[in-house]
Amino acid sequence: MTLCQSCNNNHATVHVLGVEEFRGFKAAENKVNVEHLCETCAGAKDVPFAMPATKQLQNIWELLSQKAQGASTAPNKAPLKSCNSCGTDVQTFQRTGRLGCEECYEAFADELSDIFDRIHGATAHAGRSPGEDPATFERRARVEGLERELEAAIEQEAYERAAGIRDELKGLGDSEEGATPAPEAS
Questions:
Q1: Which pick of 4, 20, 101, 154 has the fewest CB atoms within 10 Å?
Q2: Please, are residues 180 and 173 in contact by the beta-carbon 8 Å criterion?
Q3: What is the Cα 147 distance to its own chain's centre?
């Protein structure tokens, strides 16, 4: 049993090899200093890797357990989702952010839905359609807002307010050809 060279009290568990003078690749030619320290003194001197042996064993055991679990589940993994048309797989899509063809939109619908929801806060388009007249867009947006207000008024049993909203919806529907009839308040 070797005592710590720093405190001369505890058992030395950390052994530090320091090369004082390097003269070549043969060990006999180099001047080497060996220092034997206890864990407390090694920690005080900021010796790298001065971790208690039990902690090292625990870390090694955890790493081995994780690898073993990964190896045992690997053969049972489901095959990667891929596009039947172009063959692009989900890993390639996630790595590059690009789809291979128009069929990919259906193949990766779940992944795209999550992405759109995270980026835009919704999965349905709520803006103007290409070529749509701005006045038509504003009218449509107003109708959708009034329909939501109407549903809320009916749920709250505010029938007078609901009747007013219904009338306003009728007025907007009459001014628009081919408009969808507004829901009736009951």
A1: 20
A2: yes
A3: 36
Q: Which two tokens stand for residue 129?
A: 């359609």
Produce one character per residue of 114-129: b if its CB has 16 or more CB atoms within 10 Å, e if not: eeeeeeeeeeeeeeee
45 and 37 Cβ atoms separated by less than 8 Å: yes
Contact 111, 105 (CB under 8 A): no
DSSP class of residue 89 equals B
Which tens digit of pLDDT belongs to each residue from 60-97?
Answer: 777 777 777 665 555 555 567 888 889 888 888 888 88
Q: Please indicate, yes or no, whether the overall pTM of this predicted structure exceeds 0.85.
A: no
SS3 call for 114: helix
Name the DSSP class of 90: H
What is the Cα–Cα distance from 54 to 51, expressed in whole angstroms? 8
